Structure formats: C-alpha cells, structure tokens
What we know:
- There is one protein chain.
- The protein is an alpha+beta fold.
- The protein contains 12 helices and 6 strands.
- A 6-stranded mixed β-sheet has the order 2-1-6-5-4-3.
- Helix 5 crosses helix 8 (141-148), helix 7 (125-136) packs across helix 9 (152-167) and helix 8 packs across helix 9 (152-167).
Amino acid sequence: MGSAQDGIAGERRQLLNIAYRLLGSLAESEDAVQEAYARWYALPGGRRDEIVSPGAWLTTVTGRICLDVLGSARARRERYVGAWLPEPLPDRPQRENGQESLADQIVLDESVAMAFLVVLESMTPAERVAFVLHDVFRYPFAEIAAVLGRTPAACKQLAASARRRVGTTPAPATATGQADTVRRLKKAWENKDVAALVAVLDPAAVMTADGGGLVGTVLRPVEGGALIAQYMLAIADKAPGMELLERSVNGAAGLVARRDGVVMTVASFDVADGRVTRIWAVRNPEKLGPWGL
C-alpha cells in the first residue's frame, strides 16, 4: 500500500509541469494539482483500487480542472488592467536551506519560453490542452479525448489548429546569441545610450508590460525600437538606483531590475539576428514571488 501512495506522490512534479504550461501561473497550477489529489483521496477505497493507472487518472483530472480554469480565466483577463503575461520563472537557485520551491519543480525547456507561453495564450482552452498534452508531453489522443470529452479525431484537429498558431513564430536565438544581445541591451540601458539601444532593438520590436493595475506601467504594447528606447530611458530616469542583473528567465537570458534590494521587474526577450524583437516585462508584484528569495 505504501509504494502505491509513494507512486501517487511521485506524479506531483509531472502534473505541476503540465499545469504550468496550461495555465502560465504557478499559484493556479498548484491549486489545480492540489484539487486533483483531493479528488483522488475523496474516492472510496474500492474505487481507487479499480484504477489501473493512478497517474493517468490524475493527469486526466488535472487536465479537466485546468480546462475549467482556462475557461474562467478568459473572462477574468478581460477585466485585467493592461496586458496579462505568464508568470516568469527563475533558474533553480542554490538555496542555503536546501529546500526546493514550487518554481524549482518546473523543467525549464523550450515549452516554457515566454514567447511560446504567449502563443499558447492565443489558443482556445481546448486547443491549448490538446496541443500541450500531445505535442509537449506526448500523450496519445485517446487519453486527451478523456480530458476534453471529445473524440480522438476531434482532439487531433484541435492540436493541428494549435500547431498552425505556433508555426508562425520564428526560431529562437541560440543561448549564446540571446545572452550576448541581452548583455548589449543592458549595457546600453545602464549607459543611457539611446543610439546603442536603438541599434540593439529591432526597428519593429514590441514591448509588452504586465503591471496588473498594481504598479504603474504602459497598458498597451509599445511598438517600434525607437519608441521602446525612449521608454526605457524614461524608466531609468524615474528610478535612480535601479540595478540591472542578468538572470535566466524561463530558461533563457533575461534581465531583472532591482531597487533597494526589491525585484521590481523581470524582463524576458525574443532575439533574432542579434537584435531584440520582443520584450515581455512582468511588473505585477503578485507574479514576482519566486524572485524575492
């Protein structure tokens, strides 16, 4: 009996990884996984014994919970002040107390890149579930059908339409190329060098900021390298003593802006041909919890 329970507990990390890619929020992901376990333990003992694969059962239930959350999130996000961005994740830090945080359990690969998560946001809830479970986690459509309450053929079509949305995104820069470009941007920003900033920003670059209505930020995306450069310099002028740190954000080179030891902004970037094409700046303090340690 003990080994079965251990097996169930061992599913938690995988479920959390699925839920984060579906929801883009650590807190909501943890809630979804907790709810799935609560439903498992609420089953009569005899019913639990009948379930051949507890892991598959938990995945199905977690997927259904996430589908419901995604449905209600659409309405919530319409009321959200400004742009909504996924929660940024730090690299696994070396903790002095040796304890693992929730963020440490997320595997940082291409499927949590900010550009990828933002594309997932453009999908319908059903498309997102079908695509993430099949293309990222390799679940068969027969199992996905149980999550979505549709036929395997319908789930295959949902994943295909989701794939078309992803197909329009350019290939990401190499890790070295990304880090070099972000470092150039950081140096230009610190030096308040507008010409150097404009040079490192793509002329058609877009910057999106998420303050959640809790901190001041632009409510609409800023479009064009020259305008973004002006905006960045205005921020530097308004925040004397701001410290920029090179940090891994969702597994890629990014920047963290800190003032008086407090993380104010976590920025992630899309880079192509040595220039920044997209900036995602998360300023909502409710999404910066993992960065305060």
